[in-house]
Each structure stands twice: as structure tokens, then as C-alpha cells.
Amino acid sequence: MAIENSQGVWLFPNGGTCTRTDCNPRRPLRLVLLGAPGVGKGTQADLISEEFSSCPLSTGDVFRATRGMPKEKISPAMREAIEAMRNGLLVSDDMVIAMVEERGRCLKCGYGFMLDGFPRTVGQAKALDAMLAEMKLELDAVLSYTLDRDSVVERLSGRRTCGKCKTTYHLRFSPPKVEEVCDLCGGELYQRDDDRPEPILKRLEQYEASALPLEEYYKAQGLLLEISAEGSPQTVFERTRGLLRSILQERSAAQA
Ligand code: AP5
Ligand code: MG
After folding, report:
1. Is there an atom of ligand 1 within 6 Å of 117 CB?
2. Which of 30, 103, 160, 192 is catalytic?
3. E strands along 7-165, which residues?
4. pTM for the complete prediction?
């Protein structure tokens, strides 16, 4: 399957194409986004990408990109991963790390990147550090979004996703103009399998068990920036934008 957009290579490293290959922007930001399922990482990644150009790279999107593919085209390891995801469980470190390594080209991209959903464990974080060291690259920051549990559950339960262009809606906070139809491409909206009540609770448990060690890991490296995810997507983005502009200003000052 050939997908032609800035994430084509990330989703399909052996067939997808990227619309950004011929450019060399000067100020790439390389970020990791942390936060509970449903906190709004994907929503912020899209807003950050519009202003700062870094490509949103979501490991969950890679698994979901197999949706609708014929079963025989999906490897046994990928089928196992999708089953874990459906049930709200984490996919094994080995599988996810190999998947990101296969997409190393996206980490080297001159536009920078925002890893969304990876790393999720300290083991994955160490593997990412090794990959970046090999490429002589460094993270600029790790953005950790925080929100109370009830609001997170509300955001997840009301989410709907376009089956065609992947745009995300929320039944209460950002409904489509026509019920179950994507405003942008007319595609049909669906509810993610893991946005059912039981997987939501499992995902939150998994997140709560792994979040603290990961935050400590990045705090020790001086990279962790906590951001409140309360308020509208635009309000959260304004907080994020302020921090990212400061990073770019510090970088310019250091280079002057
Ligand atoms: P993944 O796809 O990474 O999902 P997640 O971390 O559970 O996060 P979500 O995508 O559910 O939420 P989000 O924070 O992006 O929120 P969104 O912006 O959509 O992972 C899925 C699964 O894949 C995992 O459970 C695991 O099985 C597997 N997996 C992936 N990576 C893995 C790894 N590294 N290791 C092991 N397993 C891995 O927003 C949510 C909703 O809220 C939307 O409806 C949105 O419109 C709305 N919204 C957003 N912001 C706001 C706001 N400010 N106000 C009101 N509504 C808002
Ligand atoms: Mg997401």
C-alpha cells in the first residue's frame, strides 16, 4: 500500500513515500511526547507539526495502519501485537524497538520528529538513546502531558477516528459536522477497539505502572517538561508553543 504524505514512510517503510524528502529545514525539533492514553498527545502532535514542522511518529498508528489489510499480508508478529493492543496491553519491547529501528530514516529526517507512544518503558527509552547516539542526534525535550483520570476516560470514550484520513474527533469536544462522517475527506468515523471500557481501564493501569520510571529516566537527563493538558486543544498548544519557542531561542543564543 503506498501512502503519500509526511508519514508514509513511517507507516509503510517498504512502500510508503514521503512528501518531504527534498527539503532541509534549519531548525528541526526532536521530541518525545509522554502522557496517559487519551491525554491528547496525537492532537498536540498535529498542532505542533503545523507550526514547527516536526513529523508526528506514532507507534500506535503503525499498528492501526494494518486495519482493513488482508490477514495474509500481516505478519504473525504484527498480528500478535494488534491482539495485545485490542486488549489494552502493551506490545513487547522487542517488537516495538525492532519496528522503530526499521523506520530509522524518519528519525534522521531534517524536519525533526515527535515520537508519540514510544518509548513507553525504560527499556525502550534506552534503545531509543542508542539509536539516536548511532545517528549522532539528540532529543531536544520530552513533553509530558498531565490530566486527571476522569477527564482522560472522558476523552477516550468519546473519541472517533476517520477510517480513511485518520483525523480524530470527539463526540462532545470536537464533533464532526455530520454524524459519523469525516469533515475533511468524507470517510466513515469509527471507534477504536481499545477505546471500549475494559481496554481503557487496562491501558490506564499499564500507563500508571510504567509512567513514573520513564519520567524519572528523562528527568535525570534534564529533558522532561511537564505540561498541563487541561483546557481546549488550543489552550494546551499555547502552553506547548511557549516551551518550544524557548528551546529554539536558547538554541539560537547558543549558536550566536
Ligand atoms: P497509542 O496509539 O500510542 O495510544 P495511547 O497512548 O493509548 O494514546 P491515544 O492515542 O489513545 O491518546 P492520545 O493521547 O493520542 O489522545 P488524542 O489526541 O487521540 O497506543 C495504542 C496501543 O498500541 C497501546 O495501548 C499498545 O497496545 C500499543 N503500543 C503503542 N506503542 C507502544 C509501545 N511503544 N510499546 C508497547 N505497546 C505500544 O485525544 C483523545 C481524544 O480527546 C480525542 O477524541 C480528541 O479529540 C480529544 N481531545 C484531545 N485533546 C483535547 C482537549 N484538550 N480537550 C478536549 N478533548 C481533547
Ligand atoms: Mg494517539
Report:
1. yes
2. 192
3. 29-35, 55-58, 112-116, 141-146, 159-162
4. 0.94
